[in-house]
Write the structure tokens for this entry.
Amino acid sequence: MKRSRLNRSLQVFWYLALLFLYAPLAIVVTFSFNSTNTYAKFSGFSLRWYEKLLENEIILNAFYNSAVLAITSSALATVFGTALGYGIYRYRHLQLGWLIWIIYLPIVMPDIVYGISQMTFFVGVHQLTGFLQPDLGTMIIAHISFQVPFVALLIYSRLVQMDPLLFEATQDLYARPWQRAWYFVLPTLRAALISAFFLSFTLSIDDFVISFFTAGPESTTLPIFIWSAIKKGITPEINAISTLLIVTVFTAAAISFAIQRARPAQSRSSQ
Amino acid sequence: MSERVAQGFSIRREWGRTTHLLGTIGPGVIWIVLFLVLPSLYLISVAFMTNGPYGLPQMPLTLQSFRELAGFGFLGWSPGNLYTLLRSFWQTLIATGLVILIAYPLAYYISTQPSNRRALMLLIVVVPSWTNQVIRTFGWMNLMAPDTPLSDTAAVFGLIPPQLGLFPSSFAVIVGLVYNFLPFMVLPLYAAFEKMDHDIVAAANDLYATPVRVFRHAVLPQTLPGLMAGTVLVSIPAFGMYVIPELLGGGKSMMLGNLVARQFAEASNWPLGAAAALIMILATLGGLLILRRIGRKLGGGKEVVL
């Protein structure tokens, strides 16, 4: 009796929390279909703000930059991070504690410190050598640096769950390191690799502060465009761009969830 | 087993292992050292440099920027920067407290659900935090703008003058912070609840302990590691927040992150900005220390614990 009342109120609390979590996104999505540019009330369904997006070359360019940034950095970070996570796993008996510190650094460091340290560094190197002028390239570098640790930790946690005897089996069969990597480790990690890529992708799309401080004048991304539009005075087009970004992230989340769901089922049937 | 045998086998084997070690962790570590550790060290050194023309740092090393950060400027002492620092602390403190209050029932509720539903529920909690921070904060700007149900309700209760919005204000900043960091508390707390021994709670209930005492003696000790990990994950980034106070707060709700950014943009005083950033770096390292200590405790002395 007492227990069920507790459960009942927890359930109510859960739905209130969902309202809290999704209301800000819902209002943005709803008003992206508003036919007038008022925020006070919804005056009718229309796609005019989406049509306006397609006519705006700055926005299309920002969309292109965002896509290049997210895809390039995620691909490279997945490669580096997977090798790193695998290395940490293989050599976990060595004293690599300091390495974990370095890996946790970008996860815990405030974005603003991160972005500004990147900016001062890039500007300094550019003054000295002429390389690393702030543009899409520096943004890709900065994004990879914060994606690699997340990928490494994800791959590491997946490897830890694996049966260590399998590794010894490859060794007993005299597999060379590259053979082991190609025929055993990578196929085993396929699901983890895909979710690592999607995780990196969402981290990149989600980032604003680091992009903002490492961007050059020619490399405006969608979040940077939205930021300056908000600062200048709000236009309803922001709702439409934001909705597109929200949909992208939700799709990526759904895909990575479906993959992770599918994995245990597969391993069960193969045993 | 065979690993250990191989270890003692031959020098050639040893050499192959070293290249293998460098080949796997090498690129990632070099990348992070080159593009993350080095820039951070450079930023720290900038804090001790002189502010040159155009705000770029120059050579004679000095503590001038720390004096400026403490409020000593050309026009004598002013408390502005210290207020910003204090405000960063208390806004972070309140937001973290609220996040804990909301996250506890949520994490517990999720942990009581059938196991096939939990992953989805966690995803539902986490996904909003994957969308861009600027967009989420923009959503709150819309919700708290003048003439919206929230603002009108607040005006009816006399909390704000009518026709005004709920932002810019410290209240709005705290709501934004709570919204932003809730998932970072729910996840570690959920992990703690999942491992919790429910028999202890049941025993406390059977002994007619009051709910407060059940929580205090049966639930809290068991979820403490999760609570502490969550507190670190929430409070450190919240302390360094930039976007939320910039959009939802005015000049009177500015936090340390805005002070830092301002020195690199309008004010053009890199050493001062770097000095303020150094305080955040120190807070970050302190948080890492705590996190590592928790990890040690949980992992029984093993190295890697997430």
